[in-house]
What does this fold into?
Amino acid sequence: MSTENNTSAPAFRYVAVTFDCSDPDGLARFYGEMLGLPVAYSSDDFVFLAKDGTPGLGFHRLADYRRPTWPDPAQEKQAHIEVGVDDLDSAESHLLSLGATKPGHQPNPDRWRVLLDPAGHPFCITTLV
It folds into this structure.
């Protein structure tokens, strides 16, 4: 992509994705355990997970947070992440033990599984990555 003027474009770098939730500490614990990410910053309303300057995940307390109702469109999912795993069945079992739940609707369970984190955000595990 070119720029029309002679000034340099500012440098941008991907830092994090932040999830709204009612319990940042609890949701950070879930994702930290899943991805092996330590807490890099924590306050009453925000927790940030990151390791060695790599992009991380943030969790922000929202007072009127409403859980997504996926696959019911009443409260859309807004976004979700894809997590690569070696074995779908063992990864699913482990994540369920950490507090994830598995909705009944699974669009393609042989290729990926849709799970819900403790705050209701859908995320997928897949062996395709």
Observations:
- Strands lie at 16-21, 39-42, 46-49, 56-61, 82-84, 112-116, 122-126.
- Helices lie at 24-35, 88-98.
- The chain has two domains: 14-63, 70-129.
